[in-house]
Amino acid sequence: MEVWELVARESIRDCIARYNANGDSGRIDDMVEVFAPDGIMETGGGRHEGREAIHAFMSSVVARGRAPVPAESSSIVMTPTEEWIARGGVPFVRHFTATTQIDVLSETSARARSYYLFLTVHGLDHWGRYLDEFAPVDGRWLITHRREMTDAAFEGGWGARAGGEGENVRLTRPLPF
Q: How sure is the predictor about 83, in pLDDT bands with cuts at 50, 70 and 90?
């Protein structure tokens, strides 16, 4: 393995981590900077080309993923997020990316496949895969094409509200294993 390939692999790992860390922190501007200017993001919800379109999509995902404001009622039943907030907790989301396999094809092209888990205040919310293509742009390896596939999401959770429609399998209770 040559040094340029080691640099490519570590740059790609860093790019994947920055995408998730910035998104989890609500830094959408920084999140989309890991895409090439003409990068493509595909999800079950559509295809978004270019940073501006990806930014608009990610912003809409954040808005759709927010817990709905409960209507005035006498019900004391709360969602896990509402209960968490009522007890003084601050809502959060966390992505965990694992089993990233990187194939460096040349000095100008690479692919990666990763599994991800998405956690919220109520625990595991949804999970899936990233299929990525990368290229160096101005000295940085950036995503030129990402296909995000949600494998499953718990009914009523953030992922079920936020996106990936069409590919998601909805689960209403935890798996037995």
A: low
CA 9 to chain centre: 20
Q: 168 and 150 in contact (C-beta within 8 Å)?
A: yes
**Minimum mean pLDDT range among 27-36, 82-91, 111-120:** 82-91
State the sign of the Cα–Cα–Cα–Cα dihedral 144, 149, 154, 155.
positive
Computed on alpha carbons and rounded to an integer, the radius of gyration of the chain in Å comes to 18
Which tokens hold the place of 26?
A: 């609500």
- Please state the domain extents for the chain: 3-64+80-171
Note whether 2 and 106 are within 8 A (CB): no
- Enumerate the β-bridge partners of residue 104: 110
Total-model pTM: 0.81
Pick the CATH number of 3-64+80-171 from 1.10.3720.10, 1.20.1250.20, 3.90.180.10, 3.10.450.50: 3.10.450.50
CB-based contacts of 103-107 (< 8 A; 24+ apart in sequence): 104/5, 104/8, 104/9, 107/4, 107/8, 107/136
- Residue among 149, 135, 140 at smallest CA distance from 38: 135
Q: Which residue has the tokens 């968490």?
A: 84
- Strands (E) across 107-177 are located at 109-120, 123-137, 140-154, 170-171
146 pLDDT more than 60: yes
